[in-house]
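Q: I'm writing up a methods section and want to include an example of the input and output format. Could you take the sequence below and give the corresponding predicted structure tokens, formatted cleanly so I can copy it straight into the document?
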Amino acid sequence: MDEMMAVAANEQKVNLLLEEGTVRKRTDSEGDLDSNVEDSNYSPEVSQRRRKIKRRIWKNIFVLGLAFMVSFSAFDGLQALQSSINCNEGLGFASLITLYISFIFSGLFLPNAVIRLLGVKWTIVFCMACYMMYSLANFRPDWYTLIPTSVVVGLAAGPLWTSQSVYVSASAYIFAEVSDKETPDSMLGKLFGVISSIYYMRGIVGNFISATVYRELLTPEQRHHEDPGIVYTCGASNCRDTNGNSTSYCYPPPLNVTSVILVVFTAVYVIAFLMLSFFLDKLPKEKDKSEDIHLLSATFKTISLWKDYRMWMLVPIIMSGGLRLGVLNGDFNESYVTCGIGVEYVGYVVLCTSITQTLTSFPSGLLTKYIGRLSQLAFGVVLGCVLIIMMLLWDPDDRVILYYLIAAGWGVTDALIKLQIRSFIGLLYPDKPSAAFANFHLWNAVGSSVSFAMSLMFCVSTKLYLLFCFQLIALALYAVVECVFNN
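A: Here is the clean output for your methods example:
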């Protein structure tokens, strides 16, 4: 990104990425560009540089979004299947619990240190490569393969997601600096909206692959097997254990069929790795990789935000994203879809979630400028509560359209809430982006690990009641922070 670095050379604000310095407006005394003046008033050379920076930023956002979309097509497609393909002894749930507990640890201790060591770009590349191990471990799913691999993936997740958020946030501030019409607030919404829309397409690709393979290669008996004399409990009434007898449906598809999916997913990871390595530009003025790294100092920066009451009030709404993930990828896929209509429908149902996430994200980012964050976030929470009521009252049957509708609704809810929270955090902590986004992904991982753990201990109905109440409390706390920030 030579052109970008040339103009940014006089802009001290880009040091916020790795220095955690203060973002500030440039001054004329520093030879900076006055954002109140039209671009046409600059010399042709300066105007051309500004346009090149904008094009580079958009190019990088699309490369980053596509790479995450490609790689997480594999990871999320496999994650959605864990409760179905590794249901024996709860191995699938156990691997996801382990993964997200490791995610919590990495979100607390690793992001700042790894980013300072490798730089933002190479942190993304290295951690993305670690995700490939989860796909490889599923070729031979067992406690001694899946659990250690889940630890590795979880440790990579914190730096990966934090560096992605820092990259997007920094790009938004740099774009606003060289633009006469855009503000950091509007650009944060736009860039996070664009990258979220691209990223959410992951489910369309990954789940279509898994659903198509199972539908073509599984026999009718293998798709939805039922043992005579055993009555399985589906839906909200499903409990992991009832009077000592498990009523959960568990009949994993043959491993040779699943292996076809795993081969495709592994190839997908390689494509994402190459895209990031060769087409994603480094951010300006990254730290020298040989700099001494102080792990405790980096960790303190993440923990330091806990002194801010606003962060604690945002924790519930952040955690709600992880709780929804556990309900959707765990309970809904196992207790509703697989139990009700068969494992081959899991991919198609989750695909609906991804489609609505994709269609919702970009418009939501644009609407932030006109109707704000709170109204969109409130709509997402209310829609989620309506979906919970539907799941509590509905006894799964063969009406396939209902599975699709519920999954699509969860996609809208998740897209609205996550997009608005991420853009708000970028605006709330412009001087500490690494620590702020590390906290976001840390608490989201806490929600996921708690949700998957609850699936092994409680009935589905209990989890749904808890999520219903938790979302409403989280919305109220977020509203307070939003009002304080605007005033």
